[in-house]
Amino acid sequence: MKIPQFVRYCIVGGFGAGVQSVIFYALTRWFGVPDYVTVGGIAFPWALAFAILGALASNFFFNKRWTFGDK
């Protein structure tokens, strides 16, 4: 049974949310990266930025391979 493309896209998106959560948790809890670093009164969310990049990379890879791989 073939899974419809939209369903595969949604599954990959949900997986990406999980990847982001796991990376953010690991960086803040296990590796001690602070949630925000304030420089000159501006808050930079380093841990969140790296978590988003990890989710973006995983979503790109799985969408390219699985969701849209048959095209």
Query: End-to-end distance, in Å?
Result: 18 Å
Give me the strand/helix succession.
Answer: HEEH
Instruction: Please compute the radius of gyration using only Cα atoms.
Output: 16 Å
Overall shape: it is: elongated
Which structural class fits the helix and strand makeup? mainly alpha
Output the strand order for the largest sheet: 1-2
**Low-confidence stretches at least 5 residues in length (pLDDT < 50)?**
none
Please provide the count of β strands: 2
Helix content: 55-70%
Q: What profile does the largest beta sheet have?
A: 2 strands, antiparallel
Number of helices: 2
Report the mean per-residue pLDDT as an integer: 90
What does this entry look like structurally?
- With 71 residues, the chain is mainly alpha-helical.
- It has a domain at 13-61.
- 68% of the residues lie in helices and 8% in strands.
- The protein contains two helices and two strands.
- A two-stranded antiparallel ribbon has the order 1-2.
- β1 and β2 form a beta hairpin.
- The longest helix has 26 residues, at 5-30.
- The mean pLDDT is 90.
